[in-house]
Design a protein that fits this description.
The complex is a heterodimer.
Chain A: H1 5-11, E1 15-20, H2 21-26, H3 30-39, E2 56-60, E3 66-70, H4 75-91, H5 94-97, E4 122-130, E5 146-153, H6 155-169, E6 179-180, H7 183-193, E7 210-223, E8 226-243, E9 258-275, E10 280-293, E11 308-316
Antiparallel strand pairs in A: 2-3, 4-5, 4-11, 6-7, 7-8, 8-9, 9-10, 10-11
Chain B: H1 3-12, H2 20-29, H3 52-59, H4 63-66, H5 77-87, E1 91-96
The chains are: A alpha+beta, B mainly alpha.
Chain lengths: 335, 104
């Protein structure tokens, strides 16, 4: 939708922003309050059924005065909404366009998950996608679906993992002993980042569903302060829970929670480079691939429970604002 | 995200896309034959040094898939409110369950 020329041309006349709606519609800080003011003038105003979500696309004056809104991904409809919004903006008196006071760069009461971004630790980009398989997967968006998330590690966690491996390798002869990733970290990677969110959000796996999780670092090379390790390991998830799977029954029909089994058996391979002088990870790439099965409430697998192969790739996040978004599963980190 | 940043991103992601059919051929050649959901007799998939690059390159998004980010999305509503005042422009907020620049 956003790549459509009609939409892109119009979008240049706005300040574009993206944000997570759950916090905005429930929070109590200045940012959330202003959003709630906008949303209650919009397409989902007052709605509580089938859900109370306020997700969608909102065109608003900086004052919080709604110009237009829609919850759709059809480029023609979105472009039409943007044109209507620009028309409303032109008609809006200057006095109603802006907040009475110039907004501070950051309200004193603002609390965001991005505040926990590990400046001196490690931030990874996590991309997941189905791998090729036999059979027809359909021709809609789901056939090529992919999703992006982020994984964060504090400096202390990096030190306990890659830093410790680098220190162990320091001074060792060629055959430095392999170093295992701390169990808590590889289990967290498995629980939170090797989930099936190719088509949509899913909760973290429960810890007891992680039947096997290992990631071994073997020194591959050392050049001055930079030490590079090969990473290899394995993860096996197998657990059963009880929940509703959206889409399994026709819309409007009664839905009852049912037992659902989730599995993912993945081999892990990759490499990481650590600079012993700066104590920073300077390169990171980890690939996980294997068969997954099962469906969760919103992950869109109601008609594709598998088993079928899925791949996940973790690489360094680039540090731009778009890549400082908090991990979807940060609530399961135990931080 | 500007053009330079996009270029950095693309470089960082090592965008070397190959057609899915090519990857399928590599995987099948390497013994990756459990892809079929309807065949219980097939062996489990194996990620090896031989299949590594193909799998990685299949998973990472293409520049085209990431093009939506080039609009320069600010990652929070409040930042847009501040910028809207500075630039005297209306705001376009894309608000989803799950951050639209992350996992939705």
């Amino acid at each position: 939708m956003w790549n459509d020329d009609r939409v892109r041309d119009l979008l240049e006349r706005f300040v574009p922003a993206a944000d997570e709606v759950g916090r905005l519609q429930r929070g109590e800080d200045d940012e959330c309050r202003l959003f709630q003011q906008v949303a209650e003038q919009g397409h989902h105003a007052g709605r509580s059924q089938p859900t109370s979500t306020r997700q969608g696309i909102y065109a608003t004056a900086p004052s919080g005065r709604l110009l237009a809104s829609i919850n759709h991904n059809d480029p023609a409809r979105v472009a039409q909404m943007l044109r209507e919004a620009l028309g409303a903006w032109r008609k809006l008196p200057e006095s109603e366009r802006y907040l009475p006071e110039t907004p501070p760069a950051r309200p004193a009461n603002l609390r965001r998950l991005e505040d926990r971004y590990p400046e001196d630790g490690l931030a990874l980009r996590v991309v997941s996608r189905d791998l090729p398989r036999r059979g027809d997967r359909g021709r809609d968006w789901r056939a090529a679906a992919w999703n992006i998330d982020f994984a964060w590690f504090t400096r202390a966690e990096v030190e306990s993992w890659i830093g410790a491996a680098a220190d162990a390798a320091d001074g060792a002869e060629r055959d430095a002993a392999p170093v295992e990733t701390p169990e808590a970290l590889i289990r967290r990677i498995a629980r939170c980042h090797l989930v099936d969110q190719v088509r949509g959000q899913t909760p973290a796996f429960r810890d007891e569903w992680v039947r096997e999780a290992s990631l071994r670092l073997v020194r591959e090379s050392a050049e001055e302060d930079a030490v590079t390790f090969r990473m290899a390991g394995r993860v096996r998830i197998d657990g059963t829970g009880r929940w509703i799977v959206e889409g399994r029954v026709p819309r409007g029909a009664p839905q009852e929670p049912a037992d659902e089994r989730l599995t993912f058996e993945a081999e892990l391979l990759g490499s990481v480079t650590f600079d012993r002088a700066t104590r920073r990870v300077t390169a990171f790439e980890l690939v996980a691939a294997g068969p997954r099965s099962g469906a969760t409430r919103y992950n869109g697998r109601h008609d594709d429970p598998g088993p079928a192969p899925m791949g996940v790739v973790l690489t360094l996040a680039d540090g731009t604002p778009a890549e400082r978004v908090a991990p979807a599963q940060i609530w399961s980190y135990g931080w | 995200m500007g053009a330079a940043a996009r270029a950095r991103y693309a470089l960082g992601m090592r965008i070397l896309r190959i057609p899915a059919l090519t990857l399928a051929a590599v995987l099948l050649g390497a013994g990756w034959t459990a892809a079929a959901a309807d065949s219980k007799s097939e062996r489990p998939p194996v990620l090896t040094d031989k299949t590594y690059e193909s799998v990685r390159d299949h998973v990472v998004p293409t520049e085209e898939e990431l093009a939506f980010r080039s609009a320069g999305w600010l990652p929070s509503f409040w930042e847009a409110v501040v910028r809207g005042h500075e630039e005297e422009k209306p705001i376009l907020l894309w608000a989803m369950n799950g951050h639209p620049l992350g996992c939705t």
